[in-house]
Amino acid sequence: MCIRDSPTPPPPANADEETFQLFWEVWEIVQREFYGELPDMQTVTYGAIRGMLETLDDEYTSFIEADIAAITREDASGSFQGIGAFVRMRDDGKLELVSIIPNSPAEAAGLMSGDLVLQVDGHSIVGLGIYEAIALIRGPAGTRVTLLIERPGQPELFEVTITRARIEIPLVESEMLEGNVAYIRLTEFSATATSQMQTELEELMAQQPVGLILDLRDNPGGWLNEAVSVADLFLGEGVVLIERASDGSEQVFRSYDGQPYESIPLVVLVNGGSASASEIVAGAIQARGRGILIGEQTFGKGSVQRPYTFSDGSELRVTIARWYTPNNVAIHGEGLAPDIQVVLPETLEPGQDPQLERAVQYLLSGE
């Protein structure tokens, strides 16, 4: 029998440490008695951390392994180095290209939405976790990666070699709608959200729209400071949110006068996928009477997390506070109720969007 050496912890200094001593006692027995291969200490440590966090009964306090944390940090910065595609992992273990970012290396190489990536540089990625697969495809700008592609409807597999580049993540879509109504959609509150919003808003406002629709549907949130900055684009002087810690201390985040978008008639589209930072912006606009919400009840994430990065690149996100709307309403677990509820039917015809249509109607008629 092969018995690994077990670490000898120092004597407990207090009752809590004495209780935790039980962990080492159990681990020592497992090392000595377990029939089978033991995991390495990193795996054991990560498992112990996750088990500890589960006792907090807070899904937002979470531990993220180093490779996944690196990808999420890069995405949150507003850009990444790779080929320029959004992906998802299918149930059959194949990585699907959901959409191709315009003017990206992926687009230049002729990749299309719906393509399936089977291999990266000769190594199969079928069955890998999505972040493992993404980590293999991404890499420093200027380097090359070869993908084996399966294209639905095409019998032969084919290889594509792509030179990676730095990709700015497109967060904003905008257009002018019927009746000279401006429309702008924000998909996430990452580090470049405000700057991208300002660029698009300037182009829209140059066309002198009669009103503006801000689409925050299915926006999962992001950085708190970006939420405050985006809200400040549409709000004059006043409170955006109140952050309250467990000890009762408060921090008030405010908006200020000076933006040219503070008076245009405004509608915000929301649904059950509008969460966190999206609810901060929508909640401030609604509470301060700046505009109305149209759509469905929002998600209801009213907590704030602080990230801590450790020496191995892993990350802890711990809930440090709850936030409240300017009129001191807690939305955690509740969400925001729209001023005008429009529930989408289970099936929609292509191009049909009753929530957007209702927003246009409201801005053109006032009701």
Total helical segments = 9
Query: What can be said about the biggest beta sheet?
Result: 6 strands, antiparallel
Element-by-element helix/strand order: HHEHEEEHEEHEEEEEHEHEEEHEEEEH
> Could you tell me the radius of gyration in angstroms?
25 Å
The number of distinct β-strands equals 19
Low-confidence stretches: 1-7
User: What is the averaged pLDDT score?
Assistant: 93
Give the helix/strand class: alpha+beta
Task: Describe the 3D structure.
With 367 residues, the protein is α+β, with helices and mostly antiparallel strands. It is built from nine helices and 19 strands. Strands 3, 4, 5, 6, 7 and 8 form a six-stranded antiparallel β-sheet that branches. Helix 6 runs parallel beside helix 7 and helix 7 packs parallel to helix 8. It is globular, with a radius of gyration of 25 Å. It starts with 14 loop residues before the first helix and ends with a helix. The N terminus is likely disordered.
